[in-house]
Structures
1.
Amino acid sequence: MTLAAGHRAKFAVVAVWVALVAAFGSFAGKLTDVEENDPVSFLPGSAESVQALEAVDRFPSGDRAQAVIVYHRDGGLTAADRAAIARDRASLNADPPPATAPIPPAIPSRDGRAALLIASIDTSDRVDEDLLIGATDELRDRVAEGVPAGLVVKVSGPAGFSTDAVKVFEQINGTLLLATASLVFVLLILIYRSPIFWAIPLVTVLFAEVLSRGIGYWLAKAGVTINGQTSGVLSVLVFGVGTDYALLLVARYREELRRHEDKHEAAAIALRRAGPAVFASGMTVIAALLCLSLAEVNGTAGLGPVGAFGVALAMLAMLTLLPALLAITGRRAFWPFVPHFGDAGTDETHGLWRRLGERIRPRPRRVWIGTTVALLVLCLGLTQMNSDLTSGNAFRGDVESVEGQELIAQSFPAGANAPTNVIVPPGGGGPAAGAARVAAVGRAAAGVDGVAAVLPVERDPDEGTLLHVTLEAEPYSERAFDVIEPLRGAVKAAGGDAVLVGGPTAEERDLRVSTARDNRLIVPIVLVVVFLILAAVLRALLLPLLLMATVILSYAAALGIGAFFFMEVFGFDGIDPALPLFAFIFLVALGVDYNIFLMARVREEAHAHGTRLGVVRGLAVTGAVITSAGIVLAGTFSTLAVLPLVVLTEIGFTIAIGVLLDTFVVRSILVPALALDVGDRVWWPSALAHRAARPDDEREEGPEPAAAETAGSGSGGAA
């Protein structure tokens, strides 16, 4: 639709968007109500640990979560300490927190420095969703009262970890939305230097954000797994991508306002010229995100359709609502830097980016080789990569459940805080045969290297026997993960293939196995999909191959920088196993975006001026807007660091660094140098690759004197 076709069309577009937001806006606030932040939402649906989790839930005790209260004194527990522990137990049993069963006697450590009280919280009452959090918080408050000096008391265990995780995820939506919107507001003010205009792209993005969260609610109701991590990434993605597309379209609109007196004509031409690049970029990101639907990990698979819908809505808002608002407000919204018909401004022959192109133009091969070597050096940080980040060290700052786990590990087998479950199903042969099978499974488990103890916990005639296996290693460590596969082999050999091994350690191990599988499957598919889209948009084969190579190199460099900073500067314990895949999806898709913006304009210029001059002219006219877009996108992803989760900090930092590399190095230097070196052949096999040289090719006069450059650049603004 062209807005010049009728005065009423622009108002009709706005009315449609208002109606959509009104219809879905009420569901946007309910997205947190349908988030699934339990372990299953982060696990591969077909994993044995998920089957074990479901089997444990069918036991009478299956809906109980253990809160492990640890009392610790470095010099050994005193008589006053033991009296305090006894008082706590008596008080909690006399007036228990909600749904908390009677607490058995304290379990002392062999070294005398610690003791444990284990409280079992019944979470079967699904009506009260805050039951676990409320009970755990009350336990923490009550055991913190009257603690003898020098005695450290912490509440950990599965209930403690779950409570701390849920509290973090509850902060995501409000905190992240406020941080992202505030940052975009500030950046738009700086970019447009107008007290008015910032509202137009920001309102457009907010419409897309509200609508995407409303549709996300219905996707969750339809069965798509959405957790707090997915919800947070959705907000950042919509704000970042939407603002990027707005900057590109507004820059072209501003350019056309200087060439055309009628604002409707300027808006229509801007949409016709910049719209295809926005559409192609959006479809690239959408296609890459949809590839995540092939993942085994539930949370990763859920991000695919949710993120794709968010990007699609952001793209549609920028192609429909934004042009309508631009046509309604016209030039006045840019006050005080109003672009008038006939004004000078950013063009193909002036400015910083034109001068950069002229510097690359004489020796492009030397430039792209040197830039490639520099990026390869940054890739050396990949040697710091590991996958040691687990649920036990996933929080930034002081988290009570983690501190409690560390205290437990000092005096007890580390796995006592989160035992591994072995479920032996009932079998034929009568009670005697069943008991013998359970005994055989118990002996087999106890004989596995790394197992500290095996305790029978519960028997049920319908479900079988539940055993708790205590591991010697900390349950969220690589040492513990290495025990799971031998343990599974041993218990299945003793009790049959139907025996299941689950629990926190098995869940973390299965998550890593499936994540590695997802990486191997999805990465090549995304490469093929993005290449095909690029080939269709640019109508060439050689250029898409070059662009893909530059984006992959940029991705590897960003991951290398991130790995170095995470381990050597920030002091994180490890890197989340999902980081390489998430970073790949976003950096490849979003990095290709900027290449599409640049090369689509270069192709337009190349028809009239040849490829080499077209590269310089295209870089000159798109440099400022793409740089602004890159800064905005990097900034929005960096807001993930406001949340106290290491994985979101790692995702935000890596993508922000990668976007900045794409913006200032790949798109500004590497891609122009490659295109200048290859020349018209870069468009092979399209007709443009065989374009006959014209008299004015390569002979355009360079930038005018400095005074003229200053005038042209200044009136163009940052947009």
Note: The longest helix spans residues 157-192.
2.
Amino acid sequence: MDIKRTVLWVIFSMSLLLLWDNWMRHNGKQSMFFPATTTQQAKNASASATATPASAAATASATAAATDTNAIFAPVIRSETITITTDLIKADIDTIGGEIKRLELLKYPDSNDPKKNVVLFDSHGDRMRTEETGFFGFFKGTKQVAEPARTYAAQTGLLGGNFPNHKSGFVALPGPRSLDGANELNLVMESEQAGVKLTKTLTFKKGSYVIDVKHTVANSTAAAITPSLYLQLIHDGTKPTSGGMFSGQTEFYAPAVYTEAKHFQKLSFEDIEKRHAKADAKPDHETISENGWVSMIQHFFVSAFIPEDKVKREIRTERVRDNIYSVSSVIALGSVAPGATATSSARLYSGPQESAILEKVAPGMELVKDYWYFAMIAKPMFWIMELIHKVLGNWGWTIVVFTIAIKLALFPLSAAGYRSMAKMKVVTPKMTALKEKYKNEPQKLNVAMMELYKTEKINPLGGCLPILIQMPIFLSLYWVLQASVEMRGAPWMGWIMDLSKPDPYLVLPILYAISMYITTKLSPAPADPVQAKMMLFMPLLFSVMFLFFPSGLVLYWVVNNVLSIGQQWVINNKIVPPEHR
């Protein structure tokens, strides 16, 4: 009984700890479990980088150090925004640098304003945005919320000399700007600097979040050149606003790299900032590879530059300027003779963290979905749920069917546990007598208790096993809902229009409380009065917590409780002997 009480106290304590931690995160405080992002605010996200002389040897930086001086002495070229629209994305490309400065996902509404779409690449100063308000679906309205400055863009260019880069002026060649029924379209941009011409070709395809990026370098000078190509993503280090406690909408930004040797490595802007302050500090990720990719990840979405395989590249993470950081791949293009050309191809993925898509984009890309420490359970769990979803086509009903399958699989164990709890209640007088007899001899008491368990064929942990097995499933499902963009905005029925957000009208938490109360009343009452009181108190605690949990998770628990009620009736009337009821 002491073991069971300990297990319940552990579950109770962990529940309180999770509740406290999420309250801290909701109020912008440091989490005890989750990686921290720097809280440094952007002083001016649109400020220019510090000018640094560029030369053939100036290859130490793939960012602002590349060619700021070139930009100063280059002819002034008017900035023009080229907008490309496909069936999935709308991208704005600036002719200054050929930079993708804004990218909108047309199939994903913004979580704060459903009338707008999710925007990945974007750069703006401090501004106000409209956000919906309300208390669990009631008193709906809108309010103005301060949104901090943001910088997020995809940049490419050349290093190693006075070459075109992401500060140079490009000319966009004529061509279609929208698919309009075609399967793909090309945006071609050219820039020539000191006899070196760089041609960027961006290929957008129907039904794809992948943009093919080809760079062609033509040398019109009288001497050979040895340029390097950089593919970089820049992002501000400002901590995003939270989407709500336990809502499954907690935002984050983080750079990440992947290589076959070191696999997936998630980094932080804070670590890059600390390394920048130390002259001799080395990156804590692999810096040379012939495979892999670099990325910027955020909740539900990711952008990644994927160079060609078996091409040597240098991987860099750097502080560009105050509160602006970059992750990049730098590829040496070799010697380009006078009159010769060199070409390098890569891909840019910028879209949702959808497993079926990521697995096809590049090896290891699916690892950007963060299941925390529950990946071993969460990944196969989501795989099974995907199979069910292919048949049902609704994620809410998928959770219902998945819960039924789990409950049926655990039924034999649950029956054994309830049978053990019933037996424990019967032998309680004998246990009390033993405690009285050996109250001053704990070692003899333990021996006598073990002998009693053996004689009565009781497993002291039998009643706790169903709870212990349910907790990893419960936590893993929480992280499946937390990490899976497939659940984002997925409706179930009626009032549940987004399984990754809390129930707006509290229906599921109330049903949980009622079903949990009935389940507790049907279960064998623990012999220990402290344990019995805890069993009655825990449903109330969880009901309060479930007000803030994703509705998909509460749906799982409600269905589980309803099944438990039927299961308990079967156990009480068909399995447990009358003398043990």
Note: The radius of gyration is 30 Å.
3.
Amino acid sequence: MAGNPKDETNGKAQSTSRRTFMRLVGVGAAATAVGTASTGGAVGAEDTVDLGAEGLRNGDLIDPYLEEYFTDGNEVQIPAGEYDYTGDGLGGDKADCALVGSADGVTFNRPEDPEVEVRPTIMATDGTVRIENITIRGKRGEAQSRWRVGAEEGATMEVVNVNVPDGTIDGSDSTGLYAGTDHAGTLHCKACYFEQMGNVAMYVSDAYTGGDGQVVVEDCVFRNINSSMLRFAPTDSVVRGCYFEGTEEPPSDHTGGTTLRGIKVDDAGTGALIEDCDFYFTRGSNPIRLHYRGEDGSGTIRNVRIYNDGDSDAIQQDWDTEGSWAGEAIHLTGSGNLDVPEHFETVTGDGAEAPNTDYSVWTPVDGESSGGSETDAAPVDGSAPQASDLVIRASPDNPDTNCDVTFTATEEIQFGDEAEPGTDRITENDDGSYTATSVEMNPDAVDSYLVSGTITAFSVTEGYEVSVTRDGESVTLDDLVDDQDRGNGEDTGPASLPNRIEIDGTGDAEESAYYDFAVTGNLTLDEGRTVVGSGETLWLTGDISDGKVSGHVRNGVDAFFYSGTLKRIEIDGDSDVNVFHG
């Protein structure tokens, strides 16, 4: 099942079949964001440089173009293609600039000799520096090739959709990204992919012993990395929405040894957070280890799903972490060692959720900068729709975790003064509409947006409440959602249920496919698209009103409208699953 999951998701619908778990964080990002590539000026770059217009062609050495143009104040756009590189021009001290590859695909090819060291150091000295949409091809050798990244105090370094799928040769000490002791600002790594490396993929713990800059690792994928996939420690740092897999032997390091470990917390930073992550280990060592060097540090591990077939603890503590590290909603499955610290709150047995194992190697994102603060609400010309101020307030009676608010508008959405661009998300959809997601709307939390056009969908995680004002006036959710522009003659669902899922079993007239899934919002049967096979009956179990359902389909299609996001889905049998985001 997990050894060969789907590795690419493109377009608005995605499919999978046969005993598959879908990692829906990656699916959602790919479904709504493919085709975007611009930072939108959010990093503060004053000028835009198109390297295609400057003469760069497919197959060229890109280094001299980077040396000339990837400088302070420039947003440098790379056209789709493959380019040779040695790292020259990529590194250096940078301020308020961006290097943005086309969402259609940009590849940097290393020198053919893996022993050629490629070792740029990229330091953000002021404002925000962003590197986005680049895949590095070619194995790294024994020489310590890596990208060293970081930011000075008050500055932000962003590494977004930078992918290393080829790994290293056997016996290599090369790593992926490294943040040294001089990192004192914010480092945000998002939607990156690492596989088959002989040493740590993301080594960001050393910052603790120096500048102790914050590190945010979000929606990244780590597969079969030797040593620890992520070394993590700095104060107030975050690992969120990431996937860690140990299913194959990784290359050895320079000592000849191999270890498969997910996260190692190996310094004593305080206030760390590891949440909404998935760990799938059929071999190797600990999915998470709280290392003895992290003694006196503190943090929280919550809402994680761990499958472990190995002999090592699922979460190992090398010191007594009670009172320092908390564990909440730790879901444990697998036939191996499921031990965690005794004071952690765990879910086991039938109630435990299995990890989501689907992933994407290439995940362009919306281009919003986590370091940006400008909203620029003014319309670009007199014909543009006037943006209205939308303020969302969480009820003080809400539970303290897991409340998300999602809404879609026909025109552009921008972050308002009280939004959190580093956590909340805005994506442009294939049809030109925009979707915003406020994450973790805990009690009394407030988020604000500037919204143009019509709001066509609004959903809140079930069991939570929010109040909304638009241009200072209170509005009900029913009044807020206007479905006058939905449909255009097509069979769409209610405005409050913008998404659709179809379990398609039309390819097999003999065998049934059994399915079980749950969503964070509301759910209802799409009667117009549900097709019952000849001689069959519609067979559903579960309380659909609670956002979950089980059923089977044979030579037919079961279709549903839903709001929110898919939390989990399991398919047993021969069928396709198509997910459409409204």
Note: The CA atoms of residues 216 and 238 lie 5 Å apart.
4.
Amino acid sequence: MKAAIAILTSFLCIITAHAQYYLRGEIRDEKNNLLSNARIVLHSTGYVYSSGSSGSFGIMTTKRIDSITISLDGYQALSVKLETAKYHSLVLKTLYTSANLQKNRLLSFTRNLKPGDRRNWTVGSETYNSLLENDFVQADKYPETGFAINTDKASYSNVRRFLNMNTTVPPDAVRTEELLNYFNFKYQPPPPDSVFGFSSYISECPWNKANQLLALHVSARKLDPQKIPPSNLVFLIDVSGSMDMPNRLPLLKSAFTLLVNNLRDKDTISIVVYGSSIGVWLQPTSGKEKEKIRKSIEELYPGGSTPGESGIRTAYNLAKSQFIKGGNNRVILATDGDFNVGQTSDDELEKLITLHQQSGIYLTCLGVGMGNYKDSKLEVLAKKGNGNFAYLDNEREAEKVLVKELTQTLYSVADNAFLNIEFNAELVKHYRLLGFDNKWKALVDSVSELDGGEVGSGHSVVALFEIDPVYPVTSPATDKGKLAHIKVRYELPNDTVHRFTTYRCPYIVTPFNSLPATYRFAAAVSMFAALLKDSKYARTYSWPEVIKLASESADPQDAIQQEFVSIIEKAKKIYGRERKKRKIM
């Protein structure tokens, strides 16, 4: 016994002799923000430490002066000698590439064109990014314009939610391209050796007979079901107190249960929750253990604040730990977006996601709720996370997004996809891109960059341009070459090599009533969006005209297109009532 005490005493004396100094300090960025979870390597021992949630650190060392190396994703590594007698405030500089990623991003871009003035829109406690509608552009001065190709569809179901609540829609909640994305426009497979396929039609413009309408149909390749790579999916679920409503957490539980039915044995599922607590709710589990996953989802319960920042960090760390090389690595964030603990502003969250952008992990955002729904936050997160964005307003929508369109939602065939179109100024005087409106903040930022999008398997989209032609609509000149030259720039998943595919739009004019129904229906969708936004380009037509066009062109066998007709009819009643109120006032 005495021998054991002597040995223990000697051991403690050795530890005391060798751990008599203490390195203390804090880590900040160039804007004086404290940085947590920075990796700190102590050179004398090789041991690794991390800065705490407040950015501070305290490390025991046997030396009076010791050196450390600090590293953090998105920042330049810093190696420095420190005296133990002092408290050190250390600054990490942002990497140049990371600084570039944090710039505002544009959805569409016309070379050398400067933005004008606009007003901001607000609606209660819901937040939406202020948008500036694309205007006509002079083709001989600015022949090139372009837009990000993406699979986002959130705006449509959110618009439907407002109209089903018998209320008007905030103009900035209406994103025309997302309304068009919602519908599958007669998918046409690309050539076997290409990721994208194209077709186009030109006709007279239904709301301005002096102009023409260019409908450009872009289809992405479908993945072979037998060759879909294994998935590493992390469900990041908001279980805070704000989710304690039937159309929030219960709806998400139903949605994820539907998704589980489509899992394969080679897929891995994890669940991270944030609310009253933050942590891993379900450890990485094979897709074959469906009952275990369903039970874990069913046991979710709401409560507490909304520490979204910490939840995102935890989910990404878990996704990294299970990373499948060449697989589909994705975090699926499901929330009303009402973050109120930690980093909560759009800019702060944007920076957080940017740090993970090059990790090969995608981010899909599923929004739910009403009243405090933060559309602006989820849109920013999805775009910065190289992912997509949907809004679930009911169980039928959840089934559409996570079952019927599962491969479009979760499996990418192209990343950072951007379409550039160069108009032939001999045929076009002015042109206007419908939708793909930019955030005001991005337009006024002189260092903004183009924001390419993620394109899901089998995605099919119609983009529309209104054209002011050089020659009269009644006698178009078809001997002046092609109307426009299309070039799509993209990257394959898990690759950084830029690839290109091209298409030339023929100048063949088809009477509007002779267009395939799918393109006339797309025109009705864009007209509906313009009326909701109170666009100056919607002054020449009315709700009954849109209802007529949509009714005549909607596919009788397509329930989603038929529902759209009923939604326009609801909007007509709501907006007609609002006009009467304004007249009385």
Note: DSSP finds 15 helices and 28 strands in the chain.
